[in-house]
Each structure stands twice: as C-alpha cells, then as structure tokens.
Amino acid sequence: MARYLTKIPVLLLLFGVLLLAGCSGKADADEPKKVAVIISTLNNPWFVVLGESAAAQARELGYEAKIFDSQNNTALEADHFENAIASGYDAILFNPTDADGSVSNVMKAKAADVPVFCMDREVNSTEAATSQILSDSYSGCVAMGKYFVQKMNKKGKYVEILGLVGDNNTWSRSKGFHSVVDNYPDLKMVAQQSADFDRNKAMEVLESVLQAHPDIDAVFCGNDAMAMGAYQAVVAAGIADRVQVFGFDGADDVIKSINDGKIAATGMQYPVVMAQTAATYADEYFKGKRDFPQKMPVAVELVKQDNVKDYLATK
What positions does the domain Periplasmic binding protein occupy (predicted)? Predict the structure, then answer.
C-alpha cells in the first residue's frame, strides 16, 4: 500500500504539468482566435486609421484583436513579435518599421506557425510574410511627378523631403517622382533630406534648407504629415503664397488644405482597404486557405484642386 501512495505526488505533478500545457499557447478550438495588429507608429493619424481599421475588421470577423505601437523602433517591434508569439496570438497584421530590419521578426513568427500579413509597408523578403498588401507608391508618384511638372511650368527650384530611409515606400515614391521630373532640366532639386515621415522634423528640415535656399518654388514630401510640416515652415517664412507643397497619403487635414488652396496635391492611399484586406486574409487563413498573393497592390489616386471635392470626408 505504501509503495502506491508514494506514486500519488508524482501523478499529481504530471497532471499539473499537463494542465499548464493545456492553458498555454494558442486559443482552444472553442475560444476566439487572437489577432495582433503591430503598427510602425501611432504618432501619425494615417497609421492610427490603418491600425484601428485592421483591429475593427478582425473583431467584426469574430476574433480578439489588440494594437501594438512600435514607435518607429525595430527593437520595440521585436518585443511586440516575441510577446505576440508567446501570448498565443494566431495571426499578425503588420505595418513594418524597416524593410530589412523587420524581416527577422516576421521569420520568427513564421517559425512559430503564426501567419503575418503586411499592410502598406513591405519587408525585403518573399519568403517571410504570408502576404503583403501595399499601396502602389511608384505609380502614384509617377502621376504626382506629371502634375508637379505641369504646376511648375517645367521650371523652378524645389526641395524633396524623404520619409524613413529604411522604408521601401520612401524610395518607391522618390523614384516614381524622379522618373518624370528628372526629364526636365530646368527643374532643379536644391536639397533632398529625410524627415522620417514626421511633421515636426519636416518643418525643422525645411526651415534649415530655407536659410540656404530662400528662393525655392516647391516642396515635394514623401507623406502628408511632412507636407503639413513643410507648409508650416513656408508660412513662417512668409512665402506660402509662392511655394507649392505636394504630399502623399490622402490624410484628412491635407485633403482639407487642398480644398482651401494651401497644399497643391497629394496621392490618395486607402489604409482602410489595406487593413480590411489583411484582416480578411487572416480570416481565410484560419479557415484553411494557404494560397495568397505575395504582393497585393492597391491603387493610389491623385488628389488636386479640381477633383478634391470628390475626396472630402471620404475613405
């Protein structure tokens, strides 16, 4: 009898281990699956729309969803991925901080069998994310370049303010723009500097550039937050009446500014479309689908003075 009693603590220990194992990892079949929405930064209203739309669509489809802010920091982004994997999230809807630096984070999720759907920004790998839903930034900025040439009458001095240098969107937009504008030798770029897609940094960058080049005629910005910062700088310098500012995103404040004659144009992206598509892809993945496009382009539309009313209070 005694030798059987000595086995009871061992059996209880084994039972406890099995119980704990059953409580960890991904949700049980009768519990809703969990979706992590990891966003590069929530310090930009455009990315707030992207993140909230993704989370809302995931919840609408019946899943739990939580938004994580990487604050444009790849190390913090890595922490979010590790936490999401360890906490049993079943999918990640992802807006990367860096096209190269974010690849390892996506690969960690893949190794843990957690699908990752990139939104708006891509990672430089075709083997990492399950799918990447991206704005067609290059084509959008080809159209922007054509309009820029028209508005400038093919001549003048301009400044280009770039976004994050590690984001492919920065270079897709710049290359699309220059593929047109560089064909006109009387259009002179006097400065090209990064402001990290940040409004305040863009204002500071342009204020500094204006000290050396006060006679510029235009500013092309890689996103709308920077366009608003650039506009603040030209207003402060007293030259807003002659310097045209061009943005990219389709943010509400820039759409209103175009309508008010302050900003010249922007490229309308569709964050809600990209976010909802990513959440829908996750839903389809949960239901067994595995054949997703590696890259899904979403068209960008040029918004300017003569069509801005079509875009007011839309998206």
Answer: 35-289
Strands 91-94 and 34-39: parallel
- Residue spans per domain, the chain: 34-135+271-297, 137-269+305-310
pLDDT on residue 68: 98
The strand ranges marked E within 168-264 are 187-194, 218-221, 244-246
pTM to 2 decimal places: 0.81
Here the contacts of 171-175 (C-beta below 8 Å, separation 24 or greater) are 172/137, 172/138, 172/141, 173/137, 173/138, 173/140, 173/141, 173/222, 173/248, 173/267, 174/141, 174/222, 175/138, 175/141
Q: What is the CA radius of gyration of the chain?
A: 24
pLDDT tens, position by position, 69-95: 999 999 999 999 999 999 999 999 999
CB atoms within 10 A of CB 114: 20
CA distance 64 to 90: 10
For the chain, residues with pLDDT lower than 70 are 1-29, 313-315
Quick one: CA torsion of 176, 181, 182, 185, rounded to 10 degrees? 180
Per-residue pLDDT tens digits for 245-286:
999 999 999 999 999 999 999 999 999 999 999 999 999 999
The whole-angstrom separation of Cα 190 and Cα 192 is 7
* Tokens encoding 128: 């990492």
- In whole angstroms, give the CA distance from residue 280 to residue 61: 8
CATH class of the domain at 137-269+305-310:
alpha beta
